[in-house]
Amino acid sequence: MRPLPSEERGLVQGTLDMLILKTLALEPMHGYGIGTRITQISRGVFNVNGGSLFPALRRLERDGMIEGQWRATENNRRAKYYSLTTTGRAMLRRQTKDWESQTSAIALILKASLGEL
Amino acid sequence: MRILRRIAGAVTAIVHRRSAEADLDEEIRGYLDVAVDDKVAAGVPREEAIRAARAELGSQAAVKDWVRDAGWESRVESVWQDVRYALRTLRRSPGFATVAILTFALGIGTNIAIFTLSDGMLFRPLPYREPDRLVLIQEYSIAKGEAYSRLGRIDFEQLRAHHRGFEGVATVSAATSLTWIGRDGAESIRTSYGTPNLLELLGVGAHIGRPLRPGDELMEPRAAMVTFDAWQRRFGGDPAIVGRTLAFEHARVQIVGVLPRRFIYPVQASLGDGDLFFVSALDPKEAADPRAGVWMPVARLKPGVSIAEAQTETDLLVRRAAQAFPATAQDRALRVANLQFALFELSRSLLWLLMSAAGSVLLIACVNLANLLLARGTAREREIGIRTAIGASRARVARQLLVESVVLGLLAGGVALLVTVLTFDAVAAQIPSRFRLVPHGVDTRAAAFTLLLSVAASILFGVLPAWRLARSDASAAMRETRRIAGPRLPLMKTGTVLVAAQVTLCFILLAGMALTANSLIRRRTIDLGIEHKDVAVLRYALGTAAYRSREEAFDFDQRVLDEIRQLPGVKAAAIDFPQIGSYAPWMHAVADGMPQQTGVWAVTAGYFDVAGIRVLEGRDFSESEVRADAPVAVVSETVARALWPGQPAVGKTVVAHKLPPLVVIGVTRDVRSGYGGRIRPAVYRPIARGRNRGMSIMARGGAGPDALAVAMRTVAQRLDPRVVVPKPLTVAETLNRGIADSQFQTSLFALFGLVGLLVSAVGIYGVMAHWVSSRVHELGVRLALGADPAALRRLVLRQASVPLLAGLVFGLLGAFVVTKRLQSLLYGVTPNDPVTLAAVVVILVTVGIAAAYAPARRAARVDPIIALRAE
Predict the structure, then answer these.
(1) Residues with Cβ < 8 Å from A68, sequence gap 6 or more?
(2) Are B181 and B722 in contact, with CB atoms under 8 Å apart?
(3) CA B12 to CA B844: how far, in whole Å?
């Protein structure tokens, strides 16, 4: 396996998939759009580029989480628009729940002070 | 479900690779377009926007690679890429590839051979119905701790009549022959007999026709089956053989079927070599005769009966039989054992040895390849360095190297299998008959074994170099100065350890080979007491129909002998029973002070001269003494020493049970029964008409043994065309047959030893040659500064001697432990015979130094100018 591009290392392992699913849950989107949307929403914290995006998209598509469709963009360019499938939606729900329970648990640990014990 | 979808997706991906690829290209193009549009919209100039978008995305090829890496089908594909790359690499260095493939093929080939040999005996179910329920019954003497190949008839009858755990008990009787008068003279058809229930009990059917079953022993004409071989050889595989009646000299035989191809009688495998198979009931008169015996029988357990239960009941029955016949050996016991296990046990020590020998050859070959790969790997460090530098992970590089090993292993396996297939028949012909369960040719099992072995072994030898090299330091590898320093220490050290390991294994292997070879030499060079080994021995059987009385038979033999004596330049004589390469004689001289097992032989005058048995004292029989059957004897030295120690034997009288008093007229050298056989004390007396039936006529001289054999046979056939006259064998041929087994073992060992030695030599050469070529620069500098070339040569040899000596020490220790296992195969040498081990040391050192010598010479001949320019 070649080392993956460094950007992905900034993300917690496995979270890129969840972010992509979340983005697509809002509306179908092409690859570049997904990247910019994630950057926008995260206010520039996460910078996802094509190198990590394309493998993730390919993986999700193969696993049946998303499906792609060729359409024209507003500027009349051909681009592949991805949308969430039913399984993808279910997966997103599950991942979100897991994530929330994990982060709140982690937050509790991090906030813990001796007095509370 | 998800798994299925994944697999389906992957398969689609492989199948539609091209369209997926095009899809991806278009998607990436679209991505860039949109990105550029986006940036232009934000006010960036178009040119600038295109550049920025490209930079953000990174290398398109890399992106595509990452995408491909996302699924496992890409692994398959990249492994295939590795395979092609490995093949290209091997083609680029044909010398390395040839040496590697051939040495490894040798290692694999020996293992295919041994696998095929042992497969039939150990792993394949025996070719009988439900072989798990078959047991072999062997007699043991508890007091003496010996096992016997026969057991008492009374015990057999007890088991047959009373054992409740057995469905049946069956055995075979010895082989005999029938005379068949064919178009080209009389010939002998070999026959074997089994008890009527034998085939039914084993569950063996017929190839065509029907198997023999109980009741067939009563049929008239006699019912028989033809063995598969005989059916092919004598009857051209004609199915019309079933139902035919064949007329023999004394009997008419009806063929009811053909035995299956792989049929062999489990114990006495040579019975399967016969032509006809009959069933006959054991002689009922012997059923209660405590002296009668049968071949070790096979029994079939009733379903659900365990071997332990059968054993308990057998013990009870044997005790009962022993009580009923108090004169029989009371300490005897019968062991009930699983048939396959018992058969394996009979040849276990040999198989174990062969397997471990073949295993060590393979191990040596593996170590050797690991070493070659490592040595080559150091030369490839730059390549590997570059690959890691441009982003290949260590795992990826290691995989690439491992794939190379496996490709190498598979190529070698292919070569080995091909050679085995081509040489199988020639080799199989050399296999003694007790290994007849060997499959007929290389089959899918052997091929599967080869595949498995090649892959496993190549991973074994490939893992170390792959792991080692993948850890190569990329930046160090890239530095140009790397080439001057030579391989870094760890790699060189690993190589040294590997060579030492190789030498150790090779030493043990060679020790085994040298010990068996030494035993064989000792067997062969033992003083047999007979000097003329080119003596041809003519022996035939006279049918009792044509030659009713001993006198008639004797007269015929005498005529044959006289005619052979008439042949120009031929000396001939006769003895009643061959002394060499045969069982003990019919008659034994029993008397107080007489050595145990002293045989009584009857000879004509001139026998000692023809056979080259020196007369030490006194003289040979005279013609008149033989004609008159005078009461005289010649004894062998052992007998003379035992009866009259320190006194001249001539003039004394031999008195023994069932012999008239015989006056000793001469003393001869002792004669042994064969190579490695024991001395057979002998009392010789004149051969006499009316007392002896059957002569072995021995002759030498004329135009050499082959011509003589033909002439002798012609004489006998001319005198009576009905007599079946087998081709006379020389004493040397008979002797060689006697040691076929140990010769087979020794040649196998020798083969393994040589292969191991060759492979080890290649290993030492490879490592040293590599060491020298990687230090050409340093050697050049040394020479330029005035180093003595001879000193450089010594330096290389000293380098090579370190692993060699270490290997010798460990090998010696290992041999002390391992060769004990050889004890049963050795003759006249101890497992730690110092001379043999010293010889092995000499061989290994010589070969090791010779292997290192070529690189050493090259080191001394390095041209400083060229070496330095190479920088």
Answers:
(1) A57, A61, A80, A81, A82
(2) yes
(3) 58
For residues B268 and B349, give the distance between their C-alpha atoms in angstroms, rounded to a whole number.
19
Q: Is A7 on the interface with B (CB under 8 A)?
A: no
Residue B215 exposed, middle or buried by CB count within 10 Å (0-12, 13-18, 19+)? exposed
Contact in structure between B180 and B189 (CB atoms under 8 Å):
yes
Question: Min CA distance, B412 vs chain A (Å)?
Answer: 29
Summarised one tens digit per residue, pLDDT across range B468-513 is 777 766 555 555 444 444 444 455 577 788 888 888 988 988 888 8
Closest Cα in chain A to B388: A2
Residue A9 has a pLDDT of 42
Residue closest to B367 by CA, chosen among B375, B357, B355: B375
Q: Is A39 on the interface with B (CB under 8 A)?
A: no
| B352/B336 Cα distance (integer angstroms) | 23
Report how far residue B687's alpha carbon sits from residue A72's, in angstroms, rounded to the nearest whole number.
117
Assign B147 to helix, strand or coil: strand
Q: Are B845 and B751 in contact (CB under 8 A)?
A: no
A59: its two tokens: 């993986």
Asked if A5 lies within 8 A of B66 by C-beta distance, the reply is yes
Start-to-end Cα distance in chain A: 45
What integer pLDDT is reported at residue B314 of this predicted model? 92
- What pTM did the predictor assign? 0.66
Chain B residues whose CB is inside 8 A of the A63 CB are: 2, 5-6, 9
Q: Which residues in chain B land under pLDDT 70?
A: 1-20, 59, 65-66, 68-75, 120-121, 174-188, 249-250, 265-273, 346-349, 378-379, 391-392, 428-441, 472-492, 543-545, 583-584, 586, 869-871
User: Cα distance from A99 to chain B (closest Cα, Å)?
Assistant: 22
Q: What is the DSSP letter of B431?
A: S
Q: List beta partners, residue B240.
A: none
At B241 the three-state DSSP class reads: helix
Q: Which two tokens stand for residue B770?
A: 């590599």
* Closest residue by Cα to residue B280 from B202, B194, B190: B194
Q: What are phi and psi of B777, to 5 degrees?
A: -60, -50
Q: How far apart are CA A8 and CA B340, in angstroms?
A: 63
Nearest alpha-carbon partner for B753 in B442, B515, B461, B538: B515
Token pair 């051939």 is at which residue?
Answer: B102
Q: What is the pLDDT of residues B718-777, one digit of tens each?
A: 888 877 777 788 888 888 877 777 777 788 778 888 888 888 888 778 777 777 777 777
Distant-in-sequence, close-in-space partners of B41: CB < 8 Å, separation ≥ 6: none
Q: What are φ and ψ of residue B337, in 5° steps?
A: -135, 150
Q: Helix B705-719 crosses helix B550-566 at what angle (to 10 degrees)?
A: 140
Strand-strand pairing, B146-148 and B208-209:
unpaired
Q: Report percent pLDDT > 90 for chain A.
A: 0
Instruction: For B690-728, give one letter per residue: b (16+ CB within 10 A) or e.
Output: eebbbbbbbbbbbeebeebbebbbebbbeebeebbbeeb
Question: For chain B, how far is it from start to end, CA to CA, in angstroms?
Answer: 61
B297 token code pair: 């029988």
> pLDDT tier at A4 (50, 70, 90 boundaries)?
very low
Q: Provide the 10 A C-beta neighbour count for residue B742.
A: 20
Structure tokens given for B44: 């960036």
- Spell out the residues 6+ positions from residue B68 whose beta carbon is closer than 8 angstroms to its own: B74, B77
Residue at token pair 């069933």? B279
Tokens of B522: 């000792």
- Judged by a CB distance cut-off of 8 A, whether residue A80 touches chain B is yes
A-chain CB neighbours of B34 within 8 Å are 30, 32-33, 73, 75, 77, 79
